[in-house]
Design a protein that fits this description.
Layout: E1 2-7, E2 12-14, H1 15-22, H2 26-34, E3 40-43, E4 48-51, H3 54-67, H4 71-79, H5 89-97, H6 100-116, H7 129-134
Parallel strand pairs: 1-3
Antiparallel strand pairs: 2-4, 3-4
Length: about 160
């Protein structure tokens, strides 16, 4: 959300610089601002400017999306950060602790995927010799859709 406050250009970065440094399209920054995930201000010339601290918020948004958090979950997490100051290391640690278990689950799922792709994963293809032992007559299909022998974190719709 733009504050409407005029800012000095040396205190803030232009949208193009933030987009380049954060790895987001400028349109994504405008969207995140509209969704109150980040905030900026306007220069005397009316150009959108962001404080340098927005780079950390954007890095958090990217990481949270990669973990699988929805924008609503990201918004709620960012709302827990202080508005009156730049968040500290402790603020970020408190925020990220809420999705530590999700990361642990994804790590375990990725390890299982890495270790299991050469064996039967219960997908129903029955193309590997191992499937005849692990999934005879595709019994795994009775447990539901997807590769039934992979962790549930890797079978989300």
């Amino acid at each position: 959300m733009s504050s409407g406050v005029s800012v000095r250009s040396d205190d803030h970065l232009p949208i193009g610089e933030v987009a380049r440094r954060a790895g987001f399209a400028a349109s994504a920054l405008r969207y995140y601002e509209k969704e109150s995930l980040i905030s900026g201000a306007r220069s005397d010339g009316g150009q959108r400017r962001y404080p340098r601290s927005v780079l950390r918020r954007l890095a958090f948004i990217r990481a949270a999306q990669n973990v699988g958090l929805s924008l609503d979950e990201i918004r709620a997490a960012l709302a827990a950060l202080p508005e009156s100051r730049v968040p500290t290391k402790a603020d970020w640690a408190r925020l990220s602790s809420s999705w530590r278990s999700r990361l642990d689950e994804q790590i375990a799922g990725l390890v299982a995927l890495r270790d299991g792709l050469s064996t039967c994963i219960g997908c129903g293809c029955l193309s590997l010799r191992r499937c005849a032992l692990s999934n005879p007559s595709d019994v795994a299909a009775g447990a539901g859709a997807g590769a039934r022998f992979l962790p549930s974190s890797l079978r989300r719709p």
